[in-house]
Design a protein that fits this description.
The protein is mostly helical. It has one domain. The radius of gyration is 38 Å and the shape is elongated. Keywords: Coiled coil.
């Protein structure tokens, strides 16, 4: 019994030693993460400061794309209307042809 109790004591001491090591490692990793996040933030800020013309060009192109998308949507609606009118006119034409053929 004494041997197994001793093992439990040794395991408990090992866990107490490992816990601070794990906590220290976790704290170090968190410091590294914080440093990387700060670095990324600085990179974004630098990019915006050094490339304002790219940001404005991107915005201009985005607006142009939106404009073209609206025009495309309007064109699709117009095409749909024209197809519908075309079908109506075709049906009317066929009916007129049928009447004309009967008169002959």
């Amino acid at each position: 019994m004494e041997g197994s109790n001793l093992n439990y004591v040794i395991m408990a001491v090992d866990e107490q030693v490992k816990l601070p090591e794990a906590t220290q490692r976790e704290a170090e990793l968190q410091r590294q993460i914080d440093g990387l996040q700060s670095h990324v933030t600085e990179l974004h800020k630098t990019r915006e400061e050094t490339n304002p013309e790219l940001s404005s060009e991107f915005q201009r192109l985005k607006e142009k794309l939106n404009e073209h998308s609206k025009q495309l949507e309007q064109s699709a609606e117009k095409l749909s209307q024209l197809k519908s009118e075309n079908l109506t006119l075709r049906d009317e034409n066929q009916a007129l042809n049928a009447v004309s053929n009967k008169k002959r």
